Amino acid sequence: MDLILWRHAEAQDAAELVIEDEQRALTPRGEKQASRMAAWLDRQLPEGVRVLCSPAVRTEQTAQALDRKYKLRAELLPDGSVQDLLDLVQWPVSRVPVLVVGHQPTLGRAVAQLLKLSEPECSVRKGSVWWLRHRMRGDEPQIVLLTVQTPELL
């Protein structure tokens, strides 16, 4: 199973706004980041990929840059847990690849847990993609990190 984790692009600063966190929108820079990453993803994503997205404005705007169908899922809001995310995507048994557009720290915690890092959380930059694959080698399950991409390097 392939699990592609895409953190939302740069958003408005919460400290400067008088709106709910989930209502923060992308900045002009964030819109460019999302567009750049979406173009790369569009060329790389396998057929039949499911796209799941947090219903926060900034994540939905990030997902919209990909111009594919997606489903909003409350489990992916900023206060969601790693277990909620893994249950939602049916890790590691799903037969289809899944792209999750979500938030830090949940994405970073998922990366750390899946890769069995010693730290409880990995830093996932805004707008970046972490692509992981679950596979079997003989009787042993393995997690392979296929790529990490940031919009600045595309």
TrEMBL record:
<dbReference type="InterPro" id="IPR013078">
    <property type="entry name" value="His_Pase_superF_clade-1"/>
</dbReference>
<dbReference type="InterPro" id="IPR029033">
    <property type="entry name" value="His_PPase_superfam"/>
</dbReference>
<dbReference type="Pfam" id="PF00300">
    <property type="entry name" value="His_Phos_1"/>
</dbReference>
<protein>
    <submittedName>
        <fullName>Phosphohistidine phosphatase SixA</fullName>
    </submittedName>
</protein>
